[in-house]
Design a protein that fits this description.
Layout: E1 11-18, E2 20-26, E3 32-37, E4 68-72, E5 75-79, E6 86-94, E7 98-105, E8 108-114, E9 118-122, E10 126-132, E11 136-140, E12 145-149, E13 158-164, E14 167-172, E15 177-183, E16 188-190, E17 195-196, E18 203-208, E19 214-219, E20 224-228, E21 234-241, E22 244-249
Parallel strand pairs: 1-5, 1-7, 2-6, 2-8, 7-9, 8-10, 9-11, 10-12, 11-13, 12-14, 13-21, 14-22, 15-21, 16-22
Antiparallel strand pairs: 3-6, 4-5, 15-20, 17-20, 18-19
Amino acid sequence: MPFSNPAGAHKLVVDAFYGNVTVKGYQGQDVVIEYTRGGSAGPNRGRRKPEEPPPPGMRRIGGNRDLEVTESANTVTVKNNILSAVSNVVIQTPADTSVTVKVISGRSIDIDNLSGEIEAHNMNGTVKITNASGAVVAHSMNGNVTASLNRVPADKMMSFSTFNGDIDVSLPADSKATFKMRADNGDIFSDFDVKLEGQSAPQIVEEKDNKGGIRRRVRRDGTQTGSINGGGPEMQFTTFDGRIVIHKKQAPAPTPAPAR
């Protein structure tokens, strides 16, 4: 699917009810979509008629349970629905594309080699982002979130969150950022020299009990704030049940010059 204006700002939106989604940046101008079909996959498999083999001597040439792909205003949109038989989607898009991927029930979202902004939301599965150079928002309700950034934009906030899983993020060693970190049932680790700020004081909250009386309890926010390399744009790291690991990503060693 071509963009109507390849030279302008362009975006890819993937809205999948279920399935694994992979998005890769490449040097072409079009969006190239490949997919596999699996009739027994997905949350509706118990209510859908199993996919039958083709009649003898025939091959499938169409149907209405595949992907819907559209382009409008320089945005390519790829969708499947609850009745779709598509189980795995691999998409190549120009490396400077901004990408939004939303999956309700899929084992994984994998995004690689993009310089545009990235949003990835997986309700029930992992999110993995590699070789990113733009702002990232990555969220899973039930799965690990992993990201490796080649560059941290100087003017964009980022967020990495999961309810039930670990967060593992690698940043260039010279990144300037301000961290807001919260792990309700886990630990936070980093090999950056993080300058931590003091936590806010606990608050006393008044609540009504089931008899109409007033009870008081102490509530602590639990968010830790710290900065690296003097501070910079805000990065949020949040997990309820898991740990947070923030790595210092070393620059690759220069390639030695060939011997003469």
